[in-house]
Amino acid sequence: MLRIRNGRLPIIAASLSLAAALFLLNSGGKSLSANYFYPGLPNQPFQLQATNSALVLTTVILLVALSIFIYSPQYMRKENGKNWFWGGISLFLSAMLLLVFAGDWVLFITAWEIMGFASFLLIATWYEKPEAQQGAVKAFMLTRFTDMGLYLGIFVVILTSGNAQVFHGTASQISTLGGLFFLLAVMGKSAQVPFQSWLSGAMAGPTPVSALLHSATMVAAGAVLLFRIYPLLNEDVLLVTGLVGGTTILVTGLTAIASRDVKQLLAASTSSQLGFMLLAIGAGSPGAAFAHWIAHAFMKSSLFLGAGIFQHEYNSTSFQKLEGTGKNRKATMLAFFIAAIALSGIPPLFGYWSKDGILAATSQSSHTALFFSVAIAGAFLTAVYMGKAVKRLWQGTPKNEEGPEPKQMLTAISILIAFVMAGGFFLEYVVTIAGYGLPSDSLSKVVGIVTAIAGLAAGWLLKESWFTGKVWNTVRDNFSIAGGYQYLVVKPTLAFAGYVYKVELLMQYFIQKTGTSFLQIAHAAFNTDTLLNNLMNGMGTAGIALSNGTKSFEEEAVEAGVYGISATVKESGRWGRKLQSGLVHKELVITVAGMLVLIFLLIALIKYA
After folding, report:
1. CA 454, 458, 460: angle at the middle one, nearest 5?
2. Is 47 helix (H, G, I), strand (E, B) or coil?
3. Which of 240, 249, 351, 427 could pair with 378 in a Cys bridge, judged by C-beta atoms 3.0 to 4.6 Å apart?
4. Half-sphere exposure of 181 (CA within 13 A, CB side)
């Protein structure tokens, strides 16, 4: 077995892949489009498509993944499951890259499902912990259910177009039902309402897993699917997409504000930020969603990796135990602070430019009043929960003495923070290379800045005592109703499984008894058949013997007797012919002799009678 406990092989592979992506992106200019075909299904080869948009996505994915790979060896040094972790995370990254380059739907589904399986393995890295088991199963089951939407949507596309190729550019729109099928798959993969709860359970895995899963792979795959099928969606589907995204922004934004755990807050934030991308798609601007996808990948991975350093300090992600930790980890706190205010939309950081694009897109959409209002509210909630997170990590008295910060982990975060700080200046150019446009207007810039500042101030002023009571507990638990996932899904499923198990045992007993009875009947029939067979064999043998005897009697006795009689008659005739000579004197002599013999016999009989 290939051992990759120290992560060197994945780091080298990610580095070479990144270099190749940058080379292709640089050599392709603005019109790269290459297709590669490989043997696949009959009359349907597997197809890889290298386009500018795919290479931009690949470059971002590999930059984030490489930083996380550099971060991980020091994080996992004292943890269990190193081989499991590195094998799973390498498979995870490979599946995401395959998804981006997939040129046919069969290959796309393959990558999509491999990613789902890899996420299950990664969340369950520490499988000995019950929360890791539950989180992995929950994520796997919920996303498997919504993946049916992907299959049905692809079925509609194939029926509409007559082939299994993934469309680029202009294409015939599919039916509303087909578009909604695709949206269901996106909602599950990107943890949109009402499927957002699985993402918080995924926090049971190692922090590098959370960073990669939440930034540039698993949940981001839903947005990538939307980028690919955007030309196929009609106005009705786009409206529903925007409504789903807007609802998720508000619901998960409130969940993040009420969270008492830094990783749970970031998980809810991921759902909310993916909601912004769906909102931009619904507003008719895939370019704005594409820009926020790029910016969010760097910002969210930085936040998660920073949270991982705090977690190592206290072996916890609870805000209560992490209070004041930032004072002992000033470099980590600075990186976390930069990423937090970038996500809030403070200029000139990355998030400001991408959030401005979404605000501008919603202000220019055909549903301006609704979409723009939701975008502003979502931007405010984002700033509130990031302000709260910064405050809880900075204020308070740290429980441990200040010590050296992990250099390798900080190096990885520094790479990401460099893009968070400077990436906005290149964002529009990168989006243009990918073939999209990034909307912008002065009003959205001003409103965005004011909203971000107001939200950060509100988050800093929030007190934890305000978030008590049943209402906030419900919000904190992802708006769970009637007990949430455990009561609405897990317990009914287990109860049904128990019922099915009993039915299966009953069927097994019935089949076993029925089988035993038939075996007994077959055994008896076999014995009867054997008796009849022996009887028939005996009768046949006797018949053969009788036939042989009859044949011998016929040949030896009957034929011999007949032959003897025939010979006697023949001999008698011969003697008779001699007696009948035709001479009168001979016949008279014979007659007289015969009469004398008769007279002699009569005298003898009379004498001795």
Report:
1. 120
2. strand
3. 249
4. 16
